[in-house]
Design brief:
Layout: H1 7-16, E1 24-25, H2 26-32, H3 39-47, E2 60-61, H4 78-85, H5 98-101, H6 105-108
Parallel strand pairs: 1-2
Helix pairs in contact: 2-3
The structure holds a DNA duplex.
Amino acid sequence: MKQGNDFFNDVYDVVRQIPKGRATSYGAIAAYLGEKRGARVVGWAMGSSYNQKDLPAHRVVNKQGELTAARLFETPTTMQERLESEGVKVRNGKIQNWEQCFWDPEKELH
DNA sequence: GGGCTGACTAGGC
DNA sequence: AGCCTAGCCAGCC
């Protein structure tokens, strides 16, 4: 749920609720938080949260299902490996069945 | 306080 | 289809 204090906290909270084997986009999170044009802020918030070990950051990708943040993880393949270990099929840094894996917070969290 | 940056997106060429 | 530009907003010089 929203904390209302920090936008970061809202982002983190939404990301934590992403079910295993699913993924969402920055824009979807931004839209859910009421920041229709705040996709960059979401991504930036995520980038500033590499300390948040409990945060399944690998479940957040861009709108095309591409793992644009893969290079920021421990290794360039960590993000893909984590997704695949959860059942998400990734090919060349891109989620294959993206439409099926996509998790929309606006619909799921209502 | 002004300008730069970025894990984004949509639109134009 | 691929590259470029503009808009977006919060944090950090």
